């Protein structure tokens, strides 16, 4: 049985920003294509929650899986998979969870 996946608020904001950026750079069609690929990747993560690379240096238990130039950061939490962030692979990953107040 496939685990459901949940998007956190920061992940939703990340996805909206990425979609807007791609739409401005390459057009709406490319943006929609990326969102479609991203959704397929979320479904795959829900099917195989241990698929990505373990990233305990960022946050204990978190995993990452790449899609184009971005990383999906997620964690299996019992019956669900929580998608925490979708970010550029060029960002300082350890800083993402160090300071959650900002």
Could you explain the architecture of this structure?
- The model has no long low-confidence stretch (mean pLDDT 89).
- The protein has one domain (5-98): 2-Layer Sandwich (YaeB-like fold).
- Helices cover 43% and strands 26% of the residues.
- The N and C termini lie far apart (37 Å).
- A five-stranded mixed beta sheet has the order 1-5-4-3-2.
- The chain contains three helices and five strands; from the N terminus they run βααββββα.
- Helix 1 runs antiparallel to helix 2.
- The chain is globular.
- The protein is an alpha+beta fold and 102 residues long.
What's this entry about, in short?
The chain is an alpha+beta fold and 102 residues long.
CATH topology: YaeB-like fold
- Give the proportion of residues in helices: 40-55%
Question: What is the rounded distance between the termini?
Answer: 37 Å
Q: What's the number of helices? A: 3
Please count the beta strands (DSSP E, at least 2 residues each): 5
Average pLDDT: 89
SSE order = EHHEEEEH
Structural class: alpha+beta
Strand content: 25-35%
Count of discrete structural domains: 1
Shape: globular
